[in-house]
Amino acid sequence: MKSLKKQRRIQVIFIISLALVVSFALTWYASRDAFQFFRAPSEIAESPPSSAEIFRIGGLVEEGTLVRDQGETITFRVTDGGASVPVAYTGVLPDLFGEGEGMVGTGRLIDGTFQATEILARHDETYMPAEVIDALKEQGVYQDPNAEIGTN
């Protein structure tokens, strides 16, 4: 009788352990695309990601590159001052989106062009995402919009 209780206890512990491992594996598998890494244009130029990887890109919309085609596709280049990456997006852009403005896009790099599925722009005239500020500071081109302008 004593060995039967011990055997049952071992079976229960094994089943619970197996259930925990299976639930962890299923959770990890289901959420693997949910983790999107931010990359600056300079990082993409140095080591381009695979076309299967979904990631976020951020920087400033390069002046003179915003082209609105006849259809819904919009093309432009995003830069961090060190490199620029061509971007293609099909859809409606945010109201505050424009040349020289900060943006963050989600998508993948296909044949050297970032195919965006989502474009985010700053939500007011002074806001810029922290990732974009860090990337611009790294390239030495960030200018704080709140800094006082020196006068003589």
UniProtKB/TrEMBL annotation:
Key words of the record: Cell membrane, Cytochrome c-type biogenesis, Heme, Iron, Membrane, Metal-binding, Signal-anchor, Transmembrane, Transmembrane helix
Positions in the Extracellular compartment: 31-152
Cellular compartment(s): Cell membrane; Membrane
Its membrane topology: Single-pass type II membrane protein
Topological region Cytoplasmic: 1-9
Name the record gives this protein: Cytochrome c-type biogenesis protein CcmE
Family statement: Belongs to the CcmE/CycJ family.
Organism this protein belongs to: Parasulfitobacter algicola
HAMAP family xrefs: CcmE (MF_01959)
Function, in words: Heme chaperone required for the biogenesis of c-type cytochromes. Transiently binds heme delivered by CcmC and transfers the heme to apo-cytochromes in a process facilitated by CcmF and CcmH.
Gene, per the UniProt record: ccmE
Residues bound to heme: H123, Y127
